[in-house]
Amino acid sequence: MKCKQMNKGGNYYEFLYNTRLVKPTILHFQLRNLVWATSKHDVYFMTNASVNHWSSTSRSLTEVLNFSGHVAPDERHNGSLLEGFTRTQISTISVKHNLLVAGGFQGELTCKLLDRHGVSFCTRTTLDDNAITNAIDIYKNMSGGIHFMASNNDCGVREFDVERFQLINHFCFPWPVNHTSVSPDGKLVTVVGDHCDGLLVDSRDGKVLSSLVGHFDYSFASAWHPDGLTFATGNQDKTCRVWDVRNLSSSIAVLKGNLGAVRSLHYSSDGRFLTVAEPADFVHIYNTKVDYKKRQEIDLFGEISGVSLSPDDESLFIGVWDRVYASLLQYNRKHAYNYLDSYV
């Protein structure tokens, strides 16, 4: 009853292409951040034990990393496991700022700079039996350096810098952490996991600034609006809640899905849209400019391995995992004046 009344019929992205040469897969039914676009033509995704790159311009598929065998770092950094890993099961990936980070079921982290040959860094975050890496967030910190944050089932959140691949912070929470996202200014972190309430914490010391009360189940997704004032959390109660840091006593909007949990959330770079992905069949694109009251609904067939907007917001990619119809869907942003498309 608290869900915002919304109108379907938004038409923000139009279908462009579906390739069945791409076969996205998932290994964990709750973790769906396995598709990442680095430009409107380039997208990275998981297929079984491999991270692959797809170019929509050349229609070519390239294997980037294969985890079915032995993977070891080519560089030397303190804390890096020089012996590497063998037959790593990948639970989540993130690709941003020329960096690819893959997380494993046993707490493994493997880092590759896209403009360098080989792997730069390998580490195991924990030896805990319940060590799965649930999510990775790559971002710029307050000083402008590239960092990444790993969320694990051992209740830990770990921050690494990319210049030296060193552990900067290790925060512990009372429950397994399923997802974290850092605010645009690098000062705040949303933390959600195996608890109905989420947390807003200080990125410097992990101090809890506020609880996020409203969801009825565990959360597996979060995302910040580029304005740094609002953010969203996605939950297994089939809703996405939008919050305002200026008043966290309650969420400012409750967005209801059709069938399942909210597994993946992404704001567009210009802040106009919020993409909300269910585990299967539906991706919703909400218009933030009309207070989330209007949306485009993309209805497809199959499990969704991941959803990603390109950095310029021009392309939307959806990974479809299905034994028969596995594919990668590409949508293009619609413009009011078609002649401008030639300049985009």
Distance between the termini: 42 Å
Helix and strand sequence: EEEEEEEEEEEEEEEEEEEEEEEEEEEEEE
Percentage of residues in helical conformation? under 10%
Q: Characterize the quaternary organization of these chains.
A: single chain
Mean pLDDT across residues: 94
Proportion of strand residues: over 45%
Low-confidence stretches are none
Using the alpha-carbon principal axes, give the shape: globular
> How is the biggest beta sheet arranged?
8 strands, mixed
Based on CA atoms alone, the radius of gyration comes out at 19 Å
Structural class: mainly beta
Number of strands: 30
Protein name: WD40-repeat-containing domain-containing protein
Structure explained in plain terms:
This protein is 0% helix and 51% strand. The protein starts with 6 loop residues before the first strand and ends in an 11-residue tail after the last strand. The strands form seven sheets. Strands 1, 2, 25, 26, 27, 28, 29 and 30 form an eight-stranded mixed sheet that branches. Strands 3-4-5-6 form a four-stranded antiparallel sheet, with no helix packed on it. A four-stranded antiparallel sheet has the order 9-10-11-12, with no helix packed on it. The chain contains no helices and 30 strands. This is WD40-repeat-containing domain-containing protein. It comes from Dioscorea alata.
